[in-house]
Amino acid sequence: MPETDYLYVQESQLVASGRGLFTAITLYKDEEITVFKGDVITEKQIRDRVSAEDDKYFIALLNGKILDCMHTECFAKYANDATGYSASLFTNNAKIIINEQNQVCLMATKKILAGSEIFCSYGKRYWKKHRV
Questions:
Q1: Do 60 and 82 sit in the same domain of this protein?
Q2: Which of 4, 37, 92, 111 has the maximum number of C-beta atoms within 10 A of its C-beta?
Q3: Are 109 and 29 in contact (CB under 8 A)?
Q4: Are 57 and 103 members of one domain?
Q5: pTM to 2 decimals?
């Protein structure tokens, strides 16, 4: 099923978080939700984007490379971290994993009802750098 059939982006329920990722169908624990898409960038591109503070969509890959999702259309990059930016009534319901095809993706950690926002942890290192 194409991701556009069951995922959509709209204003996040988290304060000051921009847009968020939502599901139009019920998702189940351990179900793969969506794949992160982007460009694997060079060391120079990494330095330039970090200097420009244009690094909020970086994902560190297992091989040490960086995947930048900022300029690529993909649903996964819209999943916000319910526990990272500020106090929230929401909890993370997905996690970032490497699937059997060695793709970085989101996987449900519990049942996520249709109409719900999908949240995942960005990790302590991300928030240490980007906390306002």
A1: no
A2: 92
A3: yes
A4: no
A5: 0.85
What domain range is 63 assigned to?
A: 38-71
Distance CA 7, CA 35 (A): 12
Q: Are residues 63 and 77 in the same domain?
A: no
Q: Where are the beta strands (DSSP E) in the chain?
A: 7-11, 19-23, 32-35, 39-41, 58-60, 66-68, 94-98, 104-108, 117-118
| Reduced DSSP (H G I as helix, E B as strand, rest coil) percent helix, strand, coil of the chain, to 5 | 15, 30, 55
Does pLDDT of 127 surpass 50? no
Q: 31 and 15, same structural domain? A: yes
Same structural domain for residues 29 and 42? no
Q: Which amino acid is at 53?
A: E
